[in-house]
């Protein structure tokens, strides 16, 4: 049973999309990484054109990061001041990224650029993760404890315009978070990812934020970056397909909850090597598609407007007639689903606690 | 068990570890080789 995506103009199997986004969600919840760098390649493999896969995954990331951020807001583990500084850089980076995206789209090379960017990013993260997890396993076997330096200073710490960040107990140059945000915003716009895999290590090792504030602040930044990316993609290219977004959001929100629960029960550090291998395999699959697979002419699907159902027709007309409001609607829709998921989770968590207390 | 057998077992286990490490290193090198050569060929 295939469903026609009115904006992306392709047929997809909704069960496949729901299952894949749920699996990626489980991995995200389990390992604390964003799922964008896995889900976008999966969408491309399923036949969604790369330019559409990037835009719709950004909208999905918005929903999941709103959901995660609301949970951290309720726990008070967020540094807004630091987050806003990163967002300033992220806004500029996103604008630059969209400009670059428009340039490559204009010369007809955007699909190759996205594939290459994914291939290299997956290769780099996969290699680093594999090497790190293998050395961790090696160290654990030999019972070795590695002493780390308390403070390592890079050139970035010598930058001017220092500011106090009371929540993180830091006195840091405002340029440090801005430069990091700039980089994250740029790659988020081109690749449709949240950028947590860059943001989280940068916050811990470069900014030196307390670890408990890192996930919440990272998700807070991701909200703003993905809002800008979603809006600009929707307004400039009309590439947000709400039909696809609904499937992605439902799958990933359920998956993330399962992954977080699993993460509380099992030690995921041993599984890190497996995730690294998965990333490398996805990278090599993209390499095969880009370099070696025979370039086949894609079948042009002609679906008449009269054949579309009410929902598809509404999406198509809404995006064509009012692109500005369609962009705003897709953002509000993702935020609503994200907050809803967080509140449902809180409700069930307090309900379980209540029953546990009664049982005692 | 005699001392020489223990020594041989230890040596074998060390050999296994070295073999796995070399395998991983060679696979990673091949992986990077494929994507770098592929990129050069595509753009060449």
Supply database-style keywords.
heterodimer, A: 360 residues, mainly alpha, two-stranded antiparallel sheet, 12 helices, B: 44 residues, rod-shaped
Task: Give helix and strand order of chain B, one letter per element, not per position.
Answer: H
Q: What best-fitting shape of chain A do the alpha-carbon axes yield?
A: globular
| Unreliable stretches of chain B | none
The main sheet of chain B comes to: none
| Largest interface by Cβ-Cβ < 8 Å | A-B, 15 and 11 residues
Structural class of chain B: mainly alpha
Average pLDDT of chain B: 79
Oligomer: heterodimer
Helical stretch count of chain B?
1
So what's the overall shape of chain B? rod-shaped
Instruction: Give the helices and strands of chain A as they follow along the chain.
Output: EEHHHHHEEHHHHHHH
Output mean pLDDT of chain A.
80
Note down, in words, how this protein is organized.
The complex is a heterodimer of chains A (about 350) and B (about 45). Chain A has about 350 residues and is mainly α. Chain A contains twelve helices and four strands, in the order E-E-H-H-H-H-H-E-E-H-H-H-H-H-H-H. Chain A has a two-stranded antiparallel ribbon with strand order 1-2. Chain A is globular and about 65 Å long. Chain B is an all-alpha fold and about 45 residues long. The interface of A and B includes residues 116 and 291 of A.
Task: Briefly summarize what is shown.
The complex is a heterodimer of chains A (360) and B (44). Chain A is mostly helical and 360 residues long. Chain A has helices at 14-31, 36-45, 50-75, 80-106, 110-142, 175-191, 196-207, 214-237, 242-265, 272-292, 310-321, 323-359, and strands at residues 3-5, 10-12, 162-165, 170-173.
Sequence-ordered SSE layout with sheet pairings:
The complex is a heterodimer of chains A (360) and B (44).
Chain A: E1 3-5, E2 10-12, H1 14-31, H2 36-45, H3 50-75, H4 80-106, H5 110-142, E3 162-165, E4 170-173, H6 175-191, H7 196-207, H8 214-237, H9 242-265, H10 272-292, H11 310-321, H12 323-359
Antiparallel strand pairs in A: 1-2, 3-4
Helix pairs in contact in A: 1-2, 1-9, 2-3, 3-8, 3-9, 3-12, 4-6, 4-8, 5-10, 6-7, 6-8, 7-8, 8-12, 9-12, 11-12
Chain B: H1 3-43
């Amino acid at each position: 049973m295939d469903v026609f995506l009115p904006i992306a103009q392709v047929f997809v199997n909704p069960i496949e999309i729901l299952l894949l986004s749920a699996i990626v969600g489980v991995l995200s919840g389990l390992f604390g990484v964003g799922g964008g760098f896995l889900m976008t390649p999966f969408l491309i493999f399923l036949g969604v054109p790369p330019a559409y896969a990037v835009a719709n995954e950004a909208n999905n990331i918005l929903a999941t990061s709103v959901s995660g951020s609301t949970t951290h807001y309720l726990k008070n583990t967020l540094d807004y001041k630091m987050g806003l500084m990163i967002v300033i850089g992220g806004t500029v980076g996103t604008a630059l990224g969209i400009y670059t995206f428009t340039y490559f789209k204009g010369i007809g090379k955007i699909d190759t650029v996205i594939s290459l960017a994914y291939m290299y990013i997956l290769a780099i993260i996969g290699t680093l993760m594999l090497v790190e997890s293998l050395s961790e396993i090696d160290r654990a076997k030999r019972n070795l404890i590695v002493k780390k330096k308390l403070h390592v200073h890079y050139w970035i710490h010598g930058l001017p315009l220092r500011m106090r960040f009371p929540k993180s107990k830091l006195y840091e140059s405002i340029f440090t978070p801005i430069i990091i945000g700039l980089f994250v915003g740029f790659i988020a716009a081109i690749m449709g990812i949240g950028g947590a895999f860059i943001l989280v290590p940068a916050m811990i090792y470069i900014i030196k934020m307390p670890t408990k504030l890192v996930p919440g602040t990272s998700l807070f930044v991701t909200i703003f970056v993905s809002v800008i990316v979603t809006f600009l993609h929707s307004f400039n290219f009309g590439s947000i397909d709400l039909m696809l977004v609904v499937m992605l959001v439902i799958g990933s929100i359920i998956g993330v909850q399962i992954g977080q629960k699993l993460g509380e029960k099992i030690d995921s550090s041993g599984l890190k090597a497996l995730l690294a291998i998965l990333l490398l395999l996805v990278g090599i699959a993209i390499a095969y598609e880009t370099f070696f697979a025979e370039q086949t002419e894609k079948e042009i699907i002609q679906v008449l407007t009269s054949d579309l159902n009410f929902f598809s027709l509404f999406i198509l007309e809404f995006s064509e007639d009012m692109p500005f409001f369609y962009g705003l609607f897709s953002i509000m829709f993702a935020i609503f689903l994200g907050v809803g998921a967080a509140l449902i989770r809180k409700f069930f968590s307090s309900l379980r606690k209540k029953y546990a207390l009664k049982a005692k | 068990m005699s001392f020489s057998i223990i020594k041989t077992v230890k040596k074998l286990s060390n050999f296994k570890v070295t073999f796995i490490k070399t395998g991983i290193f060679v696979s990673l090198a091949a992986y990077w080789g494929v994507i770098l050569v592929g990129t050069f060929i595509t753009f060449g």
